[in-house]
Automatic annotation (TrEMBL):
It holds the Pfam family SAM_HAT_N. Residues 203-287 form the S-adenosyl-l-methionine hydroxide adenosyltransferase C-terminal domain. Keywords: S-adenosyl-L-methionine. Belongs to the SAM hydrolase / SAM-dependent halogenase family. PANTHER family: CHLORINASE MJ1651. SUPFAM superfamilies: Bacterial fluorinating enzyme, C-terminal domain, Bacterial fluorinating enzyme, N-terminal domain. Residues 33-177 form the S-adenosyl-l-methionine hydroxide adenosyltransferase N-terminal domain. It comes from Micromonospora radicis. Residues 11-25 have a biased composition (Low complexity). It comes from the Bacteria. This is SAM-dependent chlorinase/fluorinase. Residues 1-25 are annotated as: Disordered.
């Protein structure tokens, strides 16, 4: 699972009902486990996942990416995961945004060059897998010895994904978690709309962040070809819209003005200096927006 030269090797853990103990050499100890979920912060769900990991691997470091993904918003969870995991240490990345929990959807673990991913097979993991180098190996999580003694039908984060992640993080071999899965059968989210047009492009809103910035699916090169003055409007609207400036950072426009720029993930984004572009544009994930260049006046 890990061919990084010079990485300190640890023993493979023997799976027990309590703390995971060591017996033989492991090729792939992880530095961290990360958690990305839609569990929120008002209940004990996140703490239960932390506790499950700590009971099996007490010294393991856990990083909380976010637990504020909108409930059931798999696209948002996938975007956050894919844009965050490349900046984390080599580890096991657990993601749970799982409207289909308890159904026939598979629980899976994926090995990539940059780390392992654990979660539901609903499209949540694959963008992150691509960002980490692509899926080298995939398994379905069916080994009962790796799971909680009693698996809830509605809380696989605690009973399936957290214990699997703890075992993988201390070096248990991935194939022991369950049977191999053909990566071509993994569920992938539909490709977001990105369509170049004569005077600009149409792109789907991927996500809206805490500040109300609107991230589009469009790559940076589509914006680079456009002039300094732009118009932004719904894809089906041929009139009206909002004037925007093609700039580099928020202060390139006056307070309250709309900016089109390349964000930290390398996507085209729309922002309002001191405001919320999502409200100005009435944009939510899935909205199609048209960005056109305007002739200099």
């Amino acid at each position: 699972m890990d061919d990084h030269p010079g990485r300190r090797q640890r023993p493979v853990p023997a799976v027990t009902s309590g703390v995971v103990t060591s017996s033989t050499r492991s090729p792939a100890p992880a530095e961290v486990v990360s958690l990305t979920t839609d569990y929120g912060l008002a209940d004990g769900f996140v703490a239960a996942c932390h506790g499950t990991i700590a009971r099996l691997a007490p010294r393991l470091r856990v990083i909380d990416v976010t637990h504020l993904v909108p409930p059931g918003d798999v696209r948002r969870g996938a975007t956050v995961l894919a844009q965050t995991t490349p900046y984390l240490p080599y580890g096991v990345h657990v993601a749970v945004v799982d409207p289909g929990v308890g159904t026939a959807r598979r629980g899976i673990a994926l090995a990539t060059a940059g780390g392992l991913l654990v979660g539901p097979d609903n499209g949540l993991l694959l963008d992150a897998a691509d960002a980490l180098g692509g899926v080298d190996q995939a398994v379905e999580l069916t080994n009962p010895r790796w799971l909680a003694p009693r698996v809830s039908a509605t809380f696989h984060g605690r009973d399936v994904f957290a214990p699997v992640a703890a075992r993988l993080a201390v070096g248990a071999p991935l194939p022991e978690a369950g049977p191999a899965v053909d990566p071509s059968t993994l569920v992938r989210l539909p490709e977001p709309v990105v369509r170049p047009e004569p005077h600009g492009f149409v792109a789907e809103v991927l996500t809206v962040d805490h500040f109300g910035n609107v991230q589009l699916a469009a790559p940076a090169d589509l914006l680079a070809a456009l002039p300094a003055r732009l118009r932004v409007r719904p894809a089906g609207d041929r009139t009206g819209g909002h004037r925007a400036v093609h700039g580099r950072t928020f202060a390139d426009v006056p307070v309250g003005a709309l900016l089109a720029h390349v964000d930290s993930a390398g996507r085209v984004a729309l922002s309002v200096n001191g405001g919320r572009a999502a409200e100005l544009l009435s944009a939510v994930p899935g909205t199609l927006l048209r960005v056109d260049g305007l002739a200099a006046s």
